Structures
1.
Amino acid sequence: MSNVIQFLESMGKDAALSNMSPEEFTAAVKALNVDDAAQHALLSRDPQLLNNLLGGRMKMMMALVPAEDDDQGEGDGHDDDQKKEEEISVN
Amino acid sequence: MSNSESLVCVGLGMTLGAHISPRSRSHIEQADVVFAAVSDPVVELWLQEMHKDVRSLQPYYSEGKSRHETYREMVEAMMIEVRSGKRVCGAFYGHPGVFARAPHAVIEQARSEGFSAHMEPGISAEDCLYADLGIDPGRYGCQHYEASQFMFYRRQIDPSAYLVLWQVGIAGDRSFRRYATEPAYRKLLVELLTEHYPLDHDVIIYEAATLPISTPRMQKLALSELVNTPLYLQSTMVLPPCRAMQRNESMLARIEELDRVLNSDSTATLTSQ
């Protein structure tokens, strides 16, 4: 496990680490065996910067539920698009 | 995961490292293949360090593609591995069964095909919301709706209870293809809500922390300000009650009468003994 992710996991699950003072947090990060860029990302608490360094996805989708089932409702955007295309072809 | 179990959907909780249950972690580690739908790219990297074969479900999403189709493809991707005899684990952020279509659907599909499948709960965004905002849903009651569904259907709103609207960043999306809706749609939502709440009613935009170095978003604003407030897929709107609970006097009178009858019956029984 990478040192950065291991550190985050420890922060997540350890009551003492999750409640570190700013000084304790800085000391804990500086004690990590990670490069300056990773230290900077952690100290600035910047998830985007951290993700860029770790090579994670640039974009995450997190919608897991639709407003209604696909057999509900009077129509969806696809039908609307089709109707628009038909109107255009008629005109 | 037992050797005979084909599929389990587990929740990772909301915050990396903080919320995953020992049993969920064990299911991930003992699976043959893990499918992942998580809320933060760093969480996905963390999951990849728990198992050598973690397959992200992110590629099934695409702007302009119906999310109904996305969810069907997620289910099919997992079912292909279940049918091939592998022990499959679906790892979802939060609770796999709360505001999540694919985990319920894949479990139902697996069972219908004769496979053993079950769900392990996780700590959901709703759970974090109660803790971070200091809300007890039992105090006044609490209604939850997906924001678009709330707009599409007539609901009975009780303004003396909390109202929580999920996925408010895509409120009003009838196409299920967008990942943000314009302020004009939110204006309609505000209009709908003003049937029950004043425009200056304080509401809260909430987003749970996904990393231990982050803090949750807990932004208070007037309902009227919702239209021009930046919202994302993970944004949730909380409307505290705007009215005191109304006592149901007729029901209270009936309960009182019942108490009186039962008490007199028990007194009579005691007297006759």
2.
Amino acid sequence: MSEPKKILVVDDDPDIVESLRVVLESRSYQVLSASNAEEAQEQVRKERPDLIILDIMMPRGTEGFHFVWNLRNDASSGCQDVPILVLSAIHDTTSLRFYPDQSDGTYSPGEFLPVQDFLDKPVEPKELLRRVENLLRE
Amino acid sequence: MNQSSPASLGATLAEEELVARLRWFIRHRWVAAVAVPMVAVVASAWLHVDLPLAAICATAFSIVAYNLLFCRLVKVVEGRRGAAGLSAAKLLANAQISSDLAALTVLIHFSGGVENPFAFFFIFHIIIASILLSPRATFAQAGLATFLFCSTCVLEEGGIIRHYSLWPFLPAGHHQRLAFLSGNLLVVTATLFISAYFATSITRRLRQREEQVVRLSEDLRLAYDRLSASEHAKALYMRKVSHELRAPLAAIRSTLTVILEGFLGPLAPKHAEMLGRADRRAGELLSLIEDILVLTRSREAPLERDKVRLSPAEVLDSVIALLRPRADAKGLTLETHLPAESLPLLGEPESIRELFTNLIANAIKYTPKGGKASVSASADSNFLRVSVSDTGIGINAEDLANIFDEFYRAENARQFDAAGTGLGLSIVKAIVQAHGGQITVASEPGQGTTFEVLLPLAASAGGAD
């Protein structure tokens, strides 16, 4: 029997995390969770997940953006290329352009966030599972 | 006190204006310098008066000379800023007027003195002084003119300086007839002071009016700034509130969906039904919040950096492609007539898409099965005209005026389809207005509705990227 795939859910809303956990565990994925970017980074190093599901609007503003850029720019984690599915209550991907207003030099404004997929909240379980399967197959 | 207050700003403005008028004054003096010898020549030939043409020409020449000097000085004054510049400009204005008064006196002396009707030309300088200078300086110039003219005439009368007779234009000896002399001097003096009085009181009134206008426009600008700041704060607040409301609702719906879709095991039918009701209501609330968020965003004019050149046909094509399944599901015909090519539309892509999505989705929503909806677009060099029409339920005349109001839903629309926030058309109108366009609607109840949107197109040449 093959090892279950590990999925890291990064969201500060415990109720969303719980819903995702129920849905994902129903397909026998192993679900890890983190409620902020720091915790998420730690989990990435320790657990090396196969997929990250990320909420973009965490308490400290656009923490999710920084998390993505840090992960993609950090070769030492060994998880530089792990697929990311962004889950957000932001209505559409273009109204908020997925770059923070202040540029801190690690990326240039206007550059699109290097993630693999987007999904709107609230979560549609079937759609979520379909996307997750797709990302894990690649 | 060193700050540039509105008062010092006013001083600088006045200086600029004064310098401009000094230049105007200098330009006209060239004309005078040329006209003087010409008039003298014509007068001596026509009236057979024996005028000292050499002296008159010499005076005209000296006018040219000091005008050249003033030309230079105006440039110097222009270089100075603030209070120093203003007082230098005033000094120069005074000097110009005094010089002119002196030159005019000399010219009058060479052409008959008190007998010369050109004495009334002093009035011009008094009027100019009232425009350029303070009332006090204007009266001082009037005094100087009076003094120069009267003393010249008196000296001529006493034989201390020569009198140039205007004979045969006038009988000789007039300048020594006391009644003529004193009468003439009195009238000229009175004329000068009366014109100084009238001219200064009129210009004072005008200046007050001008200051009032400046103050008012300043007030208006401040009020406008305050208003736009509060509008912006309101929009920001709405956005925050909407996001805060969305988060718990999204959690509620996610939780309900997980249960409803059986991820925790099968549900009893009644459980499923009740949870379904809760889920639908949460869904309604979520779309309401979403619409409020979109409406708030749509009301703000798009930022320049968010504006993109869009091909109208491409935008409409993509929107229609997304909505076609809805039309197909209802068995509606969805016709399109799009121009192959047109100038680009300069706008915020998401808003433009939202605008057409709302209009076309409405046409599909409010048209009964088997009906028809059509989207046609045309463009000229300035405008894109998109009309969305349907063979739907239509809008009653009494509702037409209100359909763009927030939360307004016509009774027949409500009956035809219960779902809807009543914000869709408010969003449409807000987007159209934020992009400088217009929207009109025509409808026949029971027959159908046509919305027509007019949006300005980007200029063909030159890129605004």
